[in-house]
């Protein structure tokens, strides 16, 4: 049985030669080529996050067979929504719990998909397990902090060596005022805690792509965070940290903090300047968590879906105009499993529609917008 990836690699000619049945070429009669097939045609990847929280929970989509089939139909790469985060994989200082993470890893490999790794160090105390925040680092705290981080990063990366091609080594350590977030680890190691995570990851899997991942968005109000991320990247490069690129999360759309500023507050000029400066550091770009927050849009589904698709297309055209952008991952493929159903709930209480498919697994205008942006993109060098 050919895996989907082998099939795609063969192409129609190869299939005919094999005499195989009209095996899915990543295409579906009424939907045309899969989003990953469209991405691959340009030297890019398309995929999605998926979570294995308890069945029936928002981050438990993996348990839904229709969702798993949608991942198989459309995606060439997956990323764990939560299962490789320190607070999930490390219930205590002695334990690594990979059970849920391995379920997604095995599913991806069985279906010929690649895997991204999210995330080795979410450098933010809100997302540290309590046992770190309350840890006694003893009389030589720097040594203990280095030991703890080295053990964590090395164990995670070595376990998936050759199976995870790209890691979010560090996630969200610059706040919206552009400041470096402090944690018990940085308190004892300084900002170089970030460099250390990258060095350990490189040593553990030299072939893996290593990214810094953050949400500094293109909307008004994120300019200082963009600046803070850029300055951090410059310092990391100057110190020789083995960083390959910037993960741009891509959670675009309406103000997440109850702004009454409506939906489209994009500042494309400052955003392009930021991206120009990042690629000027010889860093790649990856869109790692794309979705479109429709909080401030009218409830009407036709209007909402159309506006979400229009903004999504505009954003992706801009991101794909950078040849350094090779990966597009969405943060969920179907609305009912989006994290946005649990955050900044709409005043009218209606469910949000931030992803390419609706709650009945039907493709939405945003799915077409993603396809059109991939079709319009120049092939990657
Ligand atoms: O698993 C527990 C469950 O046992 C418990 O009963 C329940 C009680 O609230 O909590 C469950 O944990 C939830 C966890 O997801 C599931 O692993 C947390 O409450 C919930 O806060 C957590 O939210 C995740 C969030 O990151 C924080 O880790 C979202 O699912 C996930 O979509 C979101 O993803 C982040 C990226 O990692 C980084 N970029 C932003 C993005 C969106 O916030």
Could you explain the architecture of this structure?
The protein has 381 residues and is of the alpha/beta class. The protein has a single domain (4-376), classed as Glycosidases (TIM Barrel, Alpha-Beta Barrel), CATH 3.20.20.80. Helix content is 39%, strand content 16%. It has helices at 4-18, 35-40, 65-74, 86-89, 99-110, 130-133, 141-159, 184-189, 192-204, 223-238, 268-279, 301-320, 365-376; strands at residues 27-28, 32-33, 45-50, 77-80, 114-122, 164-171, 209-214, 245-248, 251-253, 284-293, 325-330. The strands form two sheets. Strands 3-4-5-6-7-8-10-11 form an eight-stranded parallel beta barrel, surrounded by five helices. It has a two-stranded antiparallel ribbon with strand order 1-2. It starts with a helix and ends in a 5-residue tail after the last helix. Mean pLDDT is 92; it is low at 1-28.
């Amino acid at each position: 049985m050919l895996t989907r990836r082998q099939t795609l690699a063969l192409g129609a000619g190869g299939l005919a030669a094999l005499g195989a049945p009209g095996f899915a070429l990543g295409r579906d009669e009424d939907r045309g080529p899969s989003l990953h097939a469209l991405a691959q045609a340009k030297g890019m990847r398309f995929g999605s996050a998926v979570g294995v929280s308890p069945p029936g929970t928002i981050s438990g989509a993996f348990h839904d067979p229709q969702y798993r089939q949608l991942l198989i139909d459309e995606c060439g790469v997956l990323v764990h929504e939560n299962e490789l985060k320190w607070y999930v994989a490390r219930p205590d200082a002695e334990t690594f719990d990979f059970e849920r993470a391995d379920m997604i890893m095995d599913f991806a490999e069985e279906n010929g998909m690649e895997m991204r790794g999210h995330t080795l160090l979410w450098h933010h105390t809100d997302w540290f397990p309590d046992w770190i925040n309350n840890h006694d680092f003893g009389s030589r705290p720097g040594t203990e902090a280095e030991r703890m981080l080295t053990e964590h990063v090395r164990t995670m990366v070595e376990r998936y060596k050759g199976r995870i091609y790209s890691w979010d080594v560090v996630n969200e350590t610059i706040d919206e005022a552009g400041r470096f977030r402090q944690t018990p680890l940085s308190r004892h190691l300084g900002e170089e805690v970030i460099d250390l995570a990258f060095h350990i990851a490189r040593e553990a899997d030299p072939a893996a792509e290593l990214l810094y991942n953050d949400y500094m968005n293109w909307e008004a109000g994120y300019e200082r965070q963009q600046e803070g991320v850029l300055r951090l990247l410059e310092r990391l490069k100057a110190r020789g940290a083995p960083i390959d690129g910037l993960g741009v999360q891509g959670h675009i759309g309406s103000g997440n903090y109850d702004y009454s500023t409506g939906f489209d507050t994009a500042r494309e000029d400052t955003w392009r300047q930021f991206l120009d400066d990042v690629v000027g550091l010889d860093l790649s770009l990856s869109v790692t968590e794309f979705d479109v927050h429709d909080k401030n849009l009218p409830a009407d589904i036709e209007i909402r879906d159309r506006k979400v698709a229009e903004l999504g297309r505009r954003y992706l055209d801009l991101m794909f105009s950078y040849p350094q952008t090779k990966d597009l991952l969405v943060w969920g493929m179907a609305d009912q499993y989006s994290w946005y159903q649990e955050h900044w709930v709409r005043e009218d209480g209606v469910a949000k529609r931030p992803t390419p498919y609706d709650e009945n697994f039907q493709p939405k205008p945003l799915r077409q917008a993603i396809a059109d942006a991939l079709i319009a993109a120049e092939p990657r060098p």
